[in-house]
Amino acid sequence: MIAFLDSAGSSLPPREVLDEVVGHLRREAEIGGYAAARERADDLAAGYGVLAELLGAEPDEIAFTDSATRSWLAAFDAVPLGPGDRVLISEAEYAGTAIPILHRAREAGYEVDAVPSDASGQLDLEALEEALDERVKLVSLVHAPTNSGLVNPVREVVEAAHRVGALVLLDACQSIGQLPVRADELGADLISGTGRKWLRGPRGTGVLVVRRAAADRLRPRLVDLHGAEWVGPREVRLRRDARVYEIWESSVADRLGLIAAARHALARGLDGIEREVAERAGRLREGLAALPGVAVHDVGVRRSGIVTFTVAGVAPQEVRDRLAAEGVVVSTSGASSTLLDMGRRGLDEVVRASPHYFVEPAELDQALAAVSRCAR
Q1: Do 364 and 280 form a contact (C-beta atoms < 8 A)?
Q2: β-pairing, 190-194 with 167-171?
């Protein structure tokens, strides 16, 4: 029996997602990619409404991309930044977002400041208030970090940032699909996410939410003939909706799979998914904490489905490999991916387990038994 505990890495797609992707690839092999896409034009167009329903947005606020990274980069690149401006990040910032923020700062000349964590491990809201001023143009916030069970307080961060006129770019890569992530409730101006993790969609899929209220403050630069129209020898006209951040070429099969994954999540219900994931992660944390030689490293007031731990005397990657030999699938997270947080907590690497709602109690017991044997 395989105990799959790596939905924070790349989850297992449900049958309807697999059928959509494989079925469309077969159709492309029969009549060609262009003709196959035309057959599904209505379904592809309806997908904007499906993702809008999932994410508490309007269809014209949704863009499809090939990854959460592509979504995040497209949004970040469109935020006007220059000398004298400031960008705030948290200690839970992910390397995939911290690197472009720091890299662009070298050329654009803005300042980057990290808001510290509070005693619980989440972003310190009082420290945020002290750091905010009229020079802050952007707050980059990771909703659920890759290396711990933390869930950051998004709504409170957004409200504080908006008081000084700053935009909030929310990295929801690890939250979409396991937690309700609604733009109309959280208030974030920009939200990036992926299909392959908790949403149980295909790899190579992503989504970007661009709220109407923020759109006019952005300057999209990475546009092609899908996001803009060539209307004169020296003139182009950009789209007015979020699809200006899309590019013309994409995997139609994977996009149809992403739409199917979103429909699947909506049918099951995000509130129910959150409860089931929390129950499984809580059971796993409690079981791990009770094992001699095992330390659980999760932080935060509110917890996600990510469970991180170490085994005394055994390197995390060795734990991962030993568990794999016993049919338990987990991953690891190293300091280079969350440098500030891991450095603050003195961690080099952790084992990361992430049970989704489809994980059975017996599979959690299988995982705990395997970890206990590693700890001997």
Answers
A1: yes
A2: parallel
Percentages (nearest 5) of helix, strand, coil residues in the chain: 45, 20, 35
Which residues, including other chains, have CB under 8 Å from residue 36's CB and lie 6 or more apart?
24, 27, 28, 30, 252
Q: 374 to each of 314, 319, 360, 363, how far by Cα in Å?
A: 8, 7, 22, 17
Instruction: Report yes or no: 277 and 354 within 8 Å, Cβ to Cβ.
Output: no
CB 122 within 8 A of CB 299: yes
Q: How far apart are CA 333 and CA 213, in angstroms?
A: 36
Per-residue H/E/C for 211-245: CHHHHCCCCCCCCCCCCEEEEECCEEEECCCHHHH
Scanning the structure block, which residue is given the tokens 């395997």?
370
- pLDDT tens sequence for the chain (376 residues): 899 999 999 999 999 999 999 999 999 999 999 999 999 999 999 999 999 999 999 999 999 999 999 999 999 999 999 999 999 999 999 999 999 999 999 999 999 999 999 999 999 999 999 999 999 999 999 999 999 999 999 999 999 999 999 999 999 999 999 999 999 999 999 999 999 999 999 999 999 999 999 999 999 999 999 999 999 999 999 999 999 999 999 999 999 999 999 999 999 999 999 999 999 999 999 999 999 999 999 999 999 999 999 999 999 999 999 999 999 999 999 999 999 999 999 999 999 999 999 999 999 999 999 999 997 7
Burial class, 48, CB count within 10 angstroms (exposed 0-12 / middle 13-18 / buried 19+): buried
Contacts of 321 (CB under 8 A, 6+ apart): none
Cβ-contact 183, 173 below 8 angstroms: no
| 140, 95 Cβ separation under 8 angstroms | no
At what angle are helices 68-77 and 95-108 packed, to 10 degrees?
Answer: 20
The sign one gets for the Cα dihedral 6, 8, 14, 18 is negative
